[in-house]
Structures are given as C-alpha cells and as structure tokens.
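ARCHIVE CARD
CATEGORY: sequence design from structure
SOURCE FIELD: tokenized fold
FIELD CONTENT:
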C-alpha cells in the first residue's frame, strides 16, 4: 500500500496513482446501469452484501439517483447541496463565519449528526476529513468532506436509509451514501457553467449580485488493453464569496464604543455567507480483465481546495485591535487549504464457486489553516497581519477481503446466500503548530494570539494512531416464494477503546408480485475519531452569555483540566434501529413506498459547556470544553415516496413527490453534562435544528430536443439557539422558532445538436429567505438570518450551463 507521512507526500502519491491506473481496474459498485429516474428495477447489492437485487426487492429502503438527477442538482457546485435537493432525508446547513467550518461542508441524514452517516465511493469506505468542527453547527464532529469528490466523476448516487453497522462498520447509524463513479470506455463530455446570486436583501434594502460561480469539467473513457477501460476526468470551480450581513449597532457589538467605533454605527462591517473558493479535482476509474478470468480494478480521486472565510469584525476600540495598525478596525479572513486523496486498487474473481474481492485503499486529507487581515494585539505594532494557524492531517489505510456464494442447505427451499469478509485498517491523526506569533503572549494585559483563531501551540500538537480489525458475515434465504429473511453480524476491534459487535435481522414479504412489506432491526455504532480523542486547540470565542469574547480551550476528555470537571475517556456511540415499510409498483409506471423508522442512540459524543478554569500554565485561559458520552436521544420519523413516469407529448414525463417527517427527542443526560448543564448551542441544533418535515416535488419533461423541470421544496419548522432572552426556553436555553419555507428550483434546456445541450435555470428562483432572526439574537443587527436553516442565506441563484458530448 502507499505510505504517506506528511502533506508533501502528495507528489509521489500522484505518480503512484497514475502508474496504478495503467495496470489496474475498476469496481462498478456492483450496480447495474441505472434506468430512468423513478424506476425501481435498478439492480444493486447496496444494503446487502449477499446478492444483487432490485431496489424494489430490497428488504431496506434505498434511493437511487440517476446521472441526470445528479447533473441537474449539482448546479451549485456542492455535492451536499445536491443531495439536499435530491433527498428529503438529507439536509446541508451552510455554516458561515465559523473558522474551518467555512471550508468543510457536511450533511445530515434523518436529522442526525454529520459523522453518523457513512459515505462510500464505489462501495468502499471513504475517509473522513482531518478537521474537527469547533465553531460550526455540529461542534465535536468529524465527517467526510463531500466536496473533495469530483462532481464530474459521479455516475449515480445511492442512499441507504437504515442503520447499517453490521454491514459496513462504524458511522452507519443514520444510513449510508454510496457515490458511484463513471466507468467504462464509453464517450465522455465537457461541461461548463456560469452562475451568480441575484437578490433583493430586505435587511439592508440592497439589490446584491455576488457569489459568481464558474465551473468547467470533462470526463472521457478509453479502452485499456483488449479487455479493460480507463475512465478519467477533471473539474475546476472558482466561486466568489457572498455576504448577507446586516447593518450593525456599534454600541452593542463594539467593546468600548469609542468615537472611532461610533463612526461605524449602522454600517455593514461583518460578513455572513459563503466563502470565496477555488476547487480543483482529478479522478480515474479503471478495469482490466485478465486471461484467467479475474478482474483488476482501481479508482482514485484527488482534490485541491482553497477557501477564504471570515471571522468577527474587530472594532477600532476593541482590545484585540491596535489602532496604529487598523485605525478603522479589521475583519479577520480565514484561509483554508485542503489536499485530499482517495485511492483503491484490488482484484476480484471466482474460485471454486466463491466470488472473491481483495482490495487495498488509502485515504489522506490534510488541512492547512491560516489567517490574513488579522493581528496579535499583544505584540503591538510589530505584530504580523498574516498567520499560519495549524496543520491537521488524517490518514487511513486498509486491506479487506470479501467472499460470497450460494450454498445449498438441506431443508431449505432455495440456496443460502452467504457473504463474509475481513478488514484490517490503520488510522493516524496529526496536528502541527502554527507560527510562533500566532500563539505568542506579548503584553500580558492584552489578548494573546492571532485574532480569528489562536495558533496551535507546540505543546498542544498531537500524533495519534490506532489499528482496527473487523470480521463480518451476511446471510439471507428465500424460505418461500414470497418470504425473504436475512441476518448479518460484524465484530470490530479497535486498538484504543476495545471491541464492538453489531447485528441486523431483515424480512421482506411479497404480499403480491407488486406489493411488499419490509422490516429490519439492527444495532450500529460509531467509534470516536482520533481527533475527538486527542485534539487540543484554543479558540477566542463568545462567552456563555454572548456578551464578549474569551479564550476557551478544547482539550481531550482525559486531560487533567477535563478530568477535574468530570471528563472520562470516550467510548463508542451506540444505536438500535427499527424500520418497517411498504413498497408498491404499478404496471402503468407508478411506484410508491412508505417507511417508518426509529433510531435510539445512547452515549452520543457531545461537547460540554464552558467550564471556568484558572490555569497557572496559561493565565489567559478562561474556560475549557471537552467531549463526553453524555447524551441519549431517540429519533422517529417516516419517509414517503411517490413517482410516476410515462410517454406524453412526444417526450418522457417524470413526476415525483418525497416526504420526510423527523422528530428528535432527548432521553437523558449523564456525566459532565449533568454537572455543567446542557451545552445549548450544541444540543439545540442536534435536537431541533433540522426541519421537522421536508417535501421534495419534481416535474420533469424532455424529448430529444427540449426539456424542462421544476422542483418545489418545502422545509418545515425548526429551532435555533439564540441569545435573545425574550425567546422561549428549550432545555434551559433560549431558542427561536423558524417557520415553514418554500424554495423552487427550475431549469429549461435545449439540444442544438445531438451532441450538445444548453440549459438555463436557477435555484430558489423566487428569492426566498428563512424567517429573520429576532433582534436580540442578531449580534446588534449583524446577522439578520441564521445559517442553520437549509433554505440558505444567499437568495436566488441563476445559471447557464453548456454540455458537449465527446465521441470516439
């Protein structure tokens, strides 16, 4: 396997990947070519490792979104945003002015945390990013960076809406997203798009045009030797920032409200919106059939991304400012530089009736964090204004073997479908310090370190590693012509905390040929990430009352400062999942499914509130926060999907509606959370921060020359933590209710030739915004909208897109 030790190893790695592409092959995720959207005859082993079945015949609910669906939804340039537009079970809030969260965008599935959904690429586990969310919506989580997967590489996407720990291991509590890459020696395409936000922004009365987004991408397939193929491509995106900040009352937001501060009263000095972004990606997917009948395969994705976000504005009279450097105050700019590589190579074939698949994979992500337009006030006028804050690196290497066959068993009507496998995985996490000036303490009467985020100190750098060994077995049998029963079990041993055992029982009963009942019960788990067990980082952030900033340190739960306040070593999160549902298909092109679910989660890993401390080693430190297994929750809900397609008006009409109803309930608190109380800014988004309902409608008609679609989406009510004491209290803290909101996406396209398509369209075309935040929660008017709402802050986005097919 390929070894990586530092971010500088990307060069040798790229050379290795190119060599591998020329002599290896590709997995097709065991999924057949996807038919028109809405059809349930797609064949997949997703959701079961045993035997390929149609989506209709699966014992668990699965969504499959075709290449056309994905292309229509990816106009924003963000995969998470596309998934939100496709699936009612997925949401992607767009964090803003939140440190590294401006750069790393994540999704929720069924209202759970981003690290409780497993992401696969071609059926293989995808590595997480290297950054733990500190200042965003889901502090303490470490999730997959979806934007590191090239958009042009995606053929189709599958979503398993059920717990799948017994099948795939850690993280699959809410479900699994499988991203299938384009493959084969067929034709490719060139795609180019331009879009921008155009909006009337009510809080300031302005008409704003920003967020200019330019993308260009291509993919192409070539024969490889006589019995193989190489599909490859690249994409590039350049996006401008957006700003939806309001006019700020300086008497509220400034520290001393000096005359220089007052001169900025009622001005837009903060930023709230999407960061400036530059994103570059490459991919390949290759396969080669050997003369003995075995297949070699390999695929890889590479991504380089740079972002510019913002922190909080520092007024001229703020103690974190030096007026000789910034006489009019300053807005720190956060710089994120992410390098990401995912590589898989393997072989598969048949031996003595057993299908086997042996593969190795390497996942690597490094994130370099910096600041510009900043200051270390304690260093006076000699302070630099740009800082390197820290580097974070995560590496994951694994080798796995899967085997499967049908075994005749006496007394059983049909052969027993058996699959089994083993995996060995190595994980490593590293953090490296920032510039000395980024954490230095000069004048002891002034705040130390760079403003925006303090630099990582040498004593806080960590180097962690662990080994994970897993075994699994999956069986099912059609014990009668209409009854399928399946079972799965998995044992995983982690070198740092011990072992976990999970299991799943599933049943599918065909009441008729076109109407079935399905159900499953399982347990899943999520192992604490290495970053969660060892991250140390000091941030300058709001104090518990929101009245000012203070230095707060994130420390491991085993740190003495944490242990003094109830901290203990983390253990896995555990869940018990129940699902039951009905599926129906009609000969007239109509289908419908209804699934009910419950996810009971214990030992959820959640940050504590801020414990006040006095540290002789760090006199500037006011408080510590650490992670604890302190929260138990129950999530209940339903998913309903109805679709119909037919030939009409000389073209294909597809109509669908999908509804998710989701409810989270806090069952209990324990440990440090009971002594400190609920960390409301964290727990309220987890419990109440996703829409209670979400409805996705879609009408799509096209023929060989024309086409159009319209997609209304309705987001139900949700709640967000607020510092406005006039709002009602949830779990001892104030929360604002945000009402229902509609958005509409639409597109029309024209095919000038058989090899080209020109499209014009928009997202949120009627320029809808969520409810405004109440005055007491806007930070003096700076943030009139809360970015927790999946409607987003940017208003309408319009685009034009040109696609040209490439033929051999």
């Amino acid at each position: 396997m390929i070894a990586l030790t530092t971010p500088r190893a990307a060069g040798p790695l790229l050379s290795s990947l190119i060599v591998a592409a020329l002599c290896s092959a590709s997995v097709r995720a065991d999924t057949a070519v996807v038919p028109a959207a809405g059809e349930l005859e797609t064949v997949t082993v997703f959701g079961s490792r045993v035997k390929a079945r149609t989506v209709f015949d699966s014992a668990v609910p699965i969504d499959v979104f075709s290449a056309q669906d994905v292309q229509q939804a990816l106009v924003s340039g963000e995969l998470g945003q596309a998934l939100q537009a496709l699936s009612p079970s997925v949401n992607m809030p767009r964090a803003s002015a939140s440190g590294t969260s401006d750069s790393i965008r994540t999704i929720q599935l069924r209202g759970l945390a981003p690290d409780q959904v497993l992401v696969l690429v071609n059926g293989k586990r995808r590595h997480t990013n290297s950054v733990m969310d500190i200042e965003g919506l889901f502090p303490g989580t470490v999730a997959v960076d979806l934007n590191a997967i090239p958009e042009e590489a995606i053929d189709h996407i599958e979503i398993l809406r059920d717990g799948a720990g017994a099948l795939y291991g850690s993280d699959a509590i809410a479900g699994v997203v499988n991203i299938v890459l384009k493959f084969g020696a067929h034709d490719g395409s060139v795609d180019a798009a331009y879009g921008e936000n155009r909006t009337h922004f009510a809080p300031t009365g302005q008409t704003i045009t920003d967020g200019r987004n330019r993308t260009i991408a291509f993919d192409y397939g070539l024969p490889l030797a006589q019995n193989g193929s190489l599909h490859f491509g690249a994409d590039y995106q350049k996006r401008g920032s957006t700003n939806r900040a309001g006019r700020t009352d300086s008497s509220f937001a400034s520290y001393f409200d000096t005359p220089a501060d007052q001169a900025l009263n009622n001005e837009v000095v903060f930023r709230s919106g999407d960061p400036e972004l530059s994103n570059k990606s490459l991919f390949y997917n290759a396969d080669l059939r050997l003369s003995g009948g075995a297949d070699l395969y390999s695929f890889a994705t590479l991504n380089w991304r740079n972002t510019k976000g913002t922190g909080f504005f520092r007024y001229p009279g703020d103690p974190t400012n030096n007026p000789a450097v910034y006489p009019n105050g300053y807005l720190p700019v956060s710089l994120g530089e992410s390098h990401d590589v995912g590589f898989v190579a393997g072989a598969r074939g048949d031996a003595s009736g057993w299908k086997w698949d042996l593969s190795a994979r390497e996942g690597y992500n490094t994130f370099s964090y910096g600041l510009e337009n900043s200051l270390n006030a304690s260093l006076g006028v000699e302070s630099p204004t740009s800082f390197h804050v820290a580097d974070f690196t995560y590496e994951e290497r694994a080798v796995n073997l899967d085997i499967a066959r049908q075994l005749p068993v006496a007394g059983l009507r049909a052969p027993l479908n058996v699959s089994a496998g083993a995996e060995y995985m190595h994980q490593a996490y590293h953090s490296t310090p920032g510039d000395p000036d980024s954490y230095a303490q000069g004048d002891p009467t002034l705040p130390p370190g760079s403003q925006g985020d303090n630099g990582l100190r040498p004593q806080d750098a960590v180097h962690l590693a662990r080994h994970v060994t897993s075994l699994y077995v999956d069986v099912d049998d059609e014990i009668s012509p209409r009854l399928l029963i399946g079972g799965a079990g998995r044992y995983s041993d982690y070198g740092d905390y011990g072992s976990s055992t999970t299991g799943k029982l599933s049943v599918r009963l065909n009441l008729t040929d076109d109407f079935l009942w399905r159900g499953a019960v399982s347990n899943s788990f999520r192992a604490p990430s290495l970053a969660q067990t060892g991250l140390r980082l000091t941030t300058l952030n709001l104090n518990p009352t929101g009245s000012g900033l203070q230095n707060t340190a994130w420390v491991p739960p085993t740190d003495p400062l944490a242990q003094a306040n109830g901290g203990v070593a983390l253990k896995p999160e555990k869940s018990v999942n129940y699902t039951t549902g009905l599926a129906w298909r009609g000969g007239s092109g109509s289908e419908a499914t209804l699934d009910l679910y419950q996810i009971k989660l214990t030992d959820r890993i959640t940050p504590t509130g801020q414990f006040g401390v006095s540290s002789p080693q760090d006199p500037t430190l006011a408080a510590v926060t650490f992670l604890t297994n302190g929260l138990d929750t129950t999530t209940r809900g339903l998913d309903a999907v109805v679709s119909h397609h037919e030939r009409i008006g000389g073209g294909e009409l597809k109509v669908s509606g999908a509804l998710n109803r989701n409810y989270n309930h806090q069952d209990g608190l324990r440990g440090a959370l009971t002594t400190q109380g609920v960390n409301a800014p964290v727990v309220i988004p987890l419990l109440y921060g996703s829409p209670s309902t979400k409805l996705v409608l879609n009408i799509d008609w096209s023929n060989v020359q024309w086409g159009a679609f319209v997609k209304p989406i309705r987001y139900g009510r949700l709640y967000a933590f607020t510092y406005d004491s006039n709002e009602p209290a949830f779990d001892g803290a104030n929360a604002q209710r945000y009402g229902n909101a509609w958005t509409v996406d639409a597109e029309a396209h024209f095919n000038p030739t058989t090899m080209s398509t020109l499209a014009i369209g928009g997202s949120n075309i009627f320029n809808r915004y969520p409810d405004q935040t109440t005055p007491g929660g806007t930070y003096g008017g700076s943030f009139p909208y809360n970015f927790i709402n999946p409607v987003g802050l940017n208003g309408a986005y319009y685009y034009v897109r040109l696609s040209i097919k490439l033929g051999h």
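CARD ANNOTATION: The CA atoms of residues 699 and 787 lie 28 Å apart. The chain has a mean pLDDT of 88.
SHELF: design records, drawer C
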